[in-house]
Amino acid sequence: MTARPARGLLVAAARSGSGKTTVTLALLRALRRRGLAVAGAKCGPDYIDPAFHAAATGRPSYNLDSFAMDGALLDAVAGAAGDAAELVVAEGSMGLFDGVVAEEGRSGANADVAARYGWPVVLVLDVSGAAQSAAATALGVRSYDPRLTLAGVILNKVASPRHRRLVEAGLSRIGIPVLGAVPREAALVLPERHLGLIQAGETDDLEARLDRLADLAEASIDLDAVLTAAGGRVPEPRRGSEPGRLPPPPGRRLAVARDAAFSFVYPHLEAGWRAAGAEIVPFSPLADEVPPPDCDACWLPGGYPELHAGRIAAATRFLDGLRAFAGTRPIHGECGGYMVLGESLEDAEGATHRMAGLLPVATSYAKRRLHLGYRIATLLADGALGAAGQRLVGHEFHYASEVTGVPGPAEALAEVTDAEGRPLGPAGHRRGRVSGSFFHLVGLR
Q: Could you give the CA distance from residue 150 to residue 173 in angstroms, rounded to a whole number?
């Protein structure tokens, strides 16, 4: 632990695509380079950005979600994020105030997290196509929510010195400090695909890319001013106890698929399993490995099986081992894992690949449609996620669709609503000891 309590900052923007991730990674790496014990965090449901934060800082990065986490869990996870750190830099998602219609502080918006912990906001302002008018956006952000403190702005996509002067003229008129100005630089953009950035573990030359971002921060951002702006509080980490209210682990020795096709597991969920006494044993389906036979449950996370469908279908040792495991022990699949537990998976080219056949569902990535949003699920039977009647909160984010019919009550995993309580019907499947759905678990409701 450090002698001084950790402080925080929220890097946010008025909308998606403004450059929050680039600026956050640049700040994290540059501050680490200075010898600061800095940690990252991500507001809202996102599996990909925290792995980049961890690579930039050498410390775990956690998700902070004011809708899907109750206050106790949110504080516990924020405490874990700040454990032994001097500064937590949280990255927002979407726009600063974007969330669901809910009571104040529980909307899932980035602003809720900043308000709860008193973290000043550093606004990333995309000024492409604007000059003095960009100040109006910053002014609106400063005025919209009286709970927040706007520490200043970092201009992004600045075209020229003249462009910067014009933008700064507008901001000086309303008294908002400029903490930095990042030039338009396509070479610094991280590669993307359909669910966001290419994963940190798959990004070529990641360390070199992060170092270039740190160089950018040192040249373009007033790091001393950013540090001075930090404030608020970070909750004390909880020692020797579960991080908030979570479902119990599905097994004491839990086999978790982990490779390029199966990687979407929330750090707070694994921390909760470990705190409850479970041991997590990773294995790789893409390497044709089977769930270790000395495990008593198996978890197939989400990820990108649609990009590796042929290889998974050819991994007969893995698929046979999965089927044998299901005969005696529980298996649960989330999103991509659910697709692999099904009968078949159609890839982007329209080729159909046989999967494990443990659940009566077929999925297709060729028929792409965005499914996105918070979900509240009420379990219909006892299983790996808990007892019948248990309410869980999580989210969906996928482009694949089920091409088989809606499950009946005898085989559906849960009844699901959206964040505002609108019924979405039965979702997921269960058969014997096997269950799965497109739902990503965050906590209890």
A: 16
Give the pLDDT score at 368: 84
What CATH number does residue 432 fall under?
3.40.50.880
Predicted TM-score (pTM) above 0.85? yes
- Are residues 98 and 28 both part of a single domain? yes
Cβ–Cβ < 8 Å for 15, 95: yes
In which domain, by residue range, is 215 found?
7-229
- β-strands 302-303, 262-264 pairing: antiparallel
pLDDT in tens, 181-225: 999 874 555 655 444 445 555 566 889 999 999 999 999 999 999
Helix (H) or strand (E) holding 213, with range, is helix 206-220
3-state secondary structure of 16: coil
Predicted confidence at residue 2, as pLDDT, reads: 42
Nearest to 233 by CA among 141, 64, 115, 150: 115
Domain boundary among 164, 197, 229: 229
Residues with Cβ within 8 Å of 54's Cβ and at least 6 positions away in sequence, in order, are 40, 60, 61, 200
Identified catalytic residue from 43, 295, 298, 335: 335
200/110 same-domain check: yes
243 vs 97, higher pLDDT:
97
What is the reported pLDDT for 240? Answer: 57
**Rounded percentage of the chain residues whose pLDDT exceeds 70:** 93
Residues 370-393 have pLDDT tens digits of 889 999 999 999 999 999 999 999
Say whether 43 is catalytic: no
Q: How many domains does the chain have?
A: 2
Return the ∠ at Cα 424 (arms to 421 and 428), rounded to 5°. 120
Q: From residue 114, how far is each of 32, 146, 201, 213, 268 by CA, in Å?
A: 22, 12, 29, 25, 19
Token duo for residue 143: 């005025």
